[in-house]
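Dear U.,

For the methods section draft, I wanted the exact inputs and outputs in one place so we can describe them consistently. I've listed the two proteins in the order they'll appear in the manuscript figures. Please don't edit the token lines directly; just add comments below if something needs changing.

First protein:
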Amino acid sequence: MKTLFTLMVLTFSLNVSASTWETYYVYYETDYSQGPWSRTTILNQSDYKFLAPVMFEDLFGSIKSGFVYKVIERLRDKKPKLYQWKYELECLGDTVIFKSGDQITSFNTVKNEIVSSLALNGSKVVIFDLEDRKESFSLNDVSLPYLDLVMPNQKNSQQKVTVPINHLDSTKSKVDNLGNIKPAKNESKLLPWLGISGILNIVLLFMIKRKSSK
């Protein structure tokens, strides 16, 4: 009896030691809301929908299927109507296979949420083996934009617009590094003629004034 109790305690201890708390993210399809977005053109292409991450922390063992079951559970808690279908799960390395004979409503939404949630947490391929089709997907097959980290300097460099030199208007004023305004080429050509015209006007006025004084 004492030996059996020791074995039970040892087995429990090994299971606990093999389990670790892990932080992970599940991605949900979300409608666009007004916010500080700098890439609204992407949202325009996705009909103003994107995949928003929600952080969770749970205790997992060394078996990968436990993590996949937990991701589907989180998705079902958020959207129970979309995840009523039953499935059999198989994990082969970096590949996750869902086998189901049920009809999956809003398949594109389900595909985007499952594939992004698993691919951005270590999986590479997700296979849906359904009654009417069998398809494999990777992160490249996700059809909605997902939130990601962006460094400010990279963000600014992506937004820079390079204007070709031949698109610049040569008649516009140019500013040097000191902030002094330099006239454009066309304007600089007019300066001598303006000077000559001014001198002629002064001479003409002098001659008219001299003539009127006689």
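Second protein (the one for the lower panel):
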Amino acid sequence: MESTNKLPENYIPLHELNVCSNKLMGGAKLIGINDFAPILIGDGVIPKIWIFAKIKDNIWIPLIKESKTSHPEIFIINDKINREIGIGIADTIVIKAKMTSDKVCEVNAIDLRPIGIDIHGKENELHIANSNFSNNTVKSSGFFVGISELGSAVNPGPGTMLGITKMPRRTLS
């Protein structure tokens, strides 16, 4: 997929997305890289998630589409009773998200480093490249953080999704 502002057809923005203590309201997306959202978290019974990995200039491939994958190194655990989802790559929890009410989602763990994007965080703090964020609130239909191609948060090099080695899987806990 080329870098554009176009969103997936089935993506429904959330009213509120809480990512590691940062509140994104009004449909705001976590990050934009040259105006492209490599991760989208949308509304659903459980959060609907799209994750893309960059393979070369302005070319992004989907790893997760609407919370589904066909990649053998990615595992997804859905819990419809508790309205939560966990996504992992090899032995890394990439994201844990839970719908806390209608159109409101909470992300308590995120680590996109296995796909070459320097974003990671736990309950109280989010790290994007060399910046730390906690307890912020933004209301926008745009991005919480926007990074240009020259920014340091994108590195599709060794250790990214396309070059990942097989490692034992673990449960999301």
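Candidate sentences for the figure legend, describing the second protein: DSSP finds no helices and 15 strands in the chain. The chain has a mean pLDDT of 85.

Thanks,
Y.
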